[in-house]
């Protein structure tokens, strides 16, 4: 294989333009996902649907995200990088225009599925535009932390700007914003072309078969984890069939790939101890990081906090996420990856433990520090993990790069959906348990309960003249307060569990580092074998 051409330094203004293009494309992709997940209740009202029905929008958007990069890498290699970039952004722009034609829930679900497919290439383009102007020594050290931080900040930033966009016209403001950013991204892609490597015929018929099976499996698991806590696992038998079909599809894909001479994915390498360790690490991190997306926002929603009141909190989280990526740049080296992971896990454990002391009187300002720690840790963990995987894949050859990328992206997409689903399931289970306990202690024979009902009924005297109705309203108000208290107690349990998992991972990583250090020390002290005289 010929050596790659030497890096040609790019003029600073043009290099900054490529970096700006990467940031714009990253935010375009991240905001598209955040706009949907943040505004499900408002979107449900605009569509005349329930929140449960509107949750299908999120499932439809996420379903193709985990598997699309696998096919897109092959398409990019076969048809050229420049054509891939231009077509990808044009398709995304077309879907953004199509969103203005949404009339009901069914059309909205179809458009969101198309948006999920169309936004998948944007993550790849953001990486490529960030790495394009940088010399090889800075691609990993500078480009990787920045682009991952900008990709991760999108969903948080969506909560900052959504209240300003969601006006009297509903989510039309979100569509206009998405369309505008897509148009700007298209202009940048056409004005700033990427260098295209030579095209190679890389798509085989069996690649499509394997990809379809993988796509079916990943989509089914995503739908299951998104809808499972909402419809509840045991109340919707179709969830079991969907998850079972996903397992069957993925199993068939693995069997096909194991018997191919030129597989789409190197399953044996992915099943090696080193890759399994990396996969479990990435998946575990996504699970504990779900505390930020599925924890604080939903708890505040239960407590009646509006989206507008959450803007300062998520502005702080967005800033912390960006700072986490920037803080890596001076210290980014492969040998320091375990140290970065130790710091990130410690920050997550500290932030989750701080959150676990919430009460029904808590407000967003009181969680700014803890959530900032978790947001900082997210960026601080992700770039070193991806750097280690990329270096391991490239050391074995370019063909292994595809296998690593599918591991990384699938753990992020599926891990995010699974983490949010499991977190919500745990919350619902613990809330029911706490509510039952509270109800058992709240009896009419308890004078404190009677006094609390009377106080709430007296507060309604100016609005309700009927004493019996006032008492009924007082009982209902007390029951609602008990339900809110049960939810807060459940979230505290989830925060404590998150902190415990992060601490357990921290201890395990510390022991792993200590073991590696002891092995290296023993090898340094071991006497070298004498060289035979015949070889001297």
Quick gist of this model?
This protein is an all-alpha fold and 536 residues long.
The gyration radius over C-alpha positions equals: 26 Å
Q: Strand-and-helix sequence, N→C?
A: HHHHHHHHHHHHHHHHHHH
- Count of discrete domains: 3
Helix content: over 70%
Helical/strand content category: mainly alpha
As a percent range, the share of strand residues is: under 5%
So, CATH architecture of the largest domain?
Up-down Bundle
Q: What is the third-level CATH name, the topology of the largest domain?
A: Growth Hormone, Chain: A
- Envelope shape: globular
Distance between the termini: 36 Å
Fourth CATH level, the homologous superfamily of the largest domain = MFS general substrate transporter like domains
Low-pLDDT regions: none
Keywords: Membrane, Transmembrane, Transmembrane helix, Transport
Protein name: MFS transporter
GO cellular component, one term: plasma membrane
Membrane topology: Multi-pass membrane protein
SSE layout:
Blueprint: H1 12-38, H2 40-47, H3 51-62, H4 68-79, H5 81-98, H6 105-131, H7 136-165, H8 172-191, H9 205-231, H10 237-258, H11 267-270, H12 273-294, H13 296-302, H14 311-328, H15 337-355, H16 368-396, H17 399-441, H18 447-458, H19 467-525
Please provide a written account of the structure.
InterPro entries: MFS_trans_sf (IPR036259). It is found in: Endomembrane system. The chain crosses the membrane at residues 85-103, 109-130, 142-161, 173-192, 204-226, 238-258, 270-289, 309-332, 339-356, 368-387, 399-423, 494-514. It is a multi-pass membrane protein. The protein has 536 residues and is mostly helical. The protein folds into 3 domains: 12-199, MFS general substrate transporter like domains (Growth Hormone, Chain: A); 205-261; 265-422 and 496-521. It is 78% helix and 0% strand. It is built from 19 helices and no strands. Helix 5 runs antiparallel to helix 8, helix 12 runs parallel beside helix 13 (296-302) and helix 16 packs antiparallel against helix 17 (399-441). It is globular and about 85 Å long. The relative contact order is 0.10.
């Amino acid at each position: 294989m010929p050596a790659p051409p030497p890096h040609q330094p790019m003029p600073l203004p043009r290099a900054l333009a490529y970096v700006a293009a990467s940031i714009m494309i990253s935010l375009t992709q991240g905001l598209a996902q955040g706009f949907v997940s943040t505004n499900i209740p408002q979107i449900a009202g605009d569509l005349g649907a329930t929140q449960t029905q509107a949750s299908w929008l999120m499932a439809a958007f996420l379903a193709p995200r985990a598997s699309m990069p696998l096919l897109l890498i092959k398409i990019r290699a076969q048809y050229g990088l420049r054509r891939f970039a231009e077509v990808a952004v044009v398709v995304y722009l077309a879907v953004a225009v199509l969103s203005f034609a949404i009339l009901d829930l069914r059309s909205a679900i179809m458009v969101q599925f198309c948006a999920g497919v169309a936004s998948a290439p944007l993550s790849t383009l953001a990486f490529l535009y960030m790495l394009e102007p940088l010399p090889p020594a800075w691609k990993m050290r500078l480009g990787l932390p920045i682009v991952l931080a900008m990709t991760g900040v999108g969903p948080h930033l969506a909560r900052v700007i959504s209240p300003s966009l969601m006006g009297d016209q509903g989510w039309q403001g979100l569509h206009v914003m998405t369309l505008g950013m897509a148009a700007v991204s298209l202009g940048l892609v056409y004005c700033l072309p990427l260098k295209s490597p030579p095209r190679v015929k890389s798509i085989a018929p069996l690649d499509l078969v394997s990809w379809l099976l993988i796509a079916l499996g990943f989509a089914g698991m995503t739908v299951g984890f998104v809808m499972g806590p909402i419809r509840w696992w045991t109340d919707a038998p179709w969830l079991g069939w969907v998850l079972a079909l996903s397992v069957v599809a993925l199993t068939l894909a693995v069997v096909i790939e194991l018997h191919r001479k030129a597989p789409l994915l190197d399953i044996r390498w992915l099943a090696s101890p080193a890759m399994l360790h990396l996969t479990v690490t990435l998946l575990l991190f996504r699970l504990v990081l779900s505390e930020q997306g599925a924890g604080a926002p939903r708890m505040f929603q239960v407590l009646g906090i509006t989206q507008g009141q959450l803007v300062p909190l998520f502005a702080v989280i967005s800033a912390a996420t960006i700072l986490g990526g920037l803080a890596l740049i001076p210290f980014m080296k492969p040998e320091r990856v375990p140290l970065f992971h130790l710091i990130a896990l410690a920050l997550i454990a500290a932030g989750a433990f701080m959150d676990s002391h919430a009460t029904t009187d808590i407000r967003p300002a009181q969680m700014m520090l803890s959530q900032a720690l978790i947001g900082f840790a997210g960026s601080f963990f992700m770039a070193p993990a991806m750097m280690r995987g990329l270096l391991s894949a490239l050391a074995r050859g370019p063909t292994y790069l595809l296998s690593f990328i599918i591991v990384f992206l699938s753990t992020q997409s599926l891990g995010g959906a699974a983490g949010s689903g499991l977190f919500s399931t745990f919350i619902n289970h613990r809330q029911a348990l706490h509510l039952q306990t509270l109800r058992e202690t709240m009896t009419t024979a308890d004078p404190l309960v009677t006094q609390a009902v009377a106080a709430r009924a007296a507060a309604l005297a100016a609005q309700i003249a009927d004493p019996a109705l006032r008492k009924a309203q007082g009982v209902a108000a007390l029951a609602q307060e008990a339900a809110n208290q049960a939810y807060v107690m459940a979230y505290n349990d989830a925060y404590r569990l998150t902190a415990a998992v992060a601490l357990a991972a921290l201890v395990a990583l510390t022991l792993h580092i200590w073991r590696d250090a002891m092995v290296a020390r023993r090898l340094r002290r071991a006497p070298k074998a004498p060289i035979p005289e015949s070889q001297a």
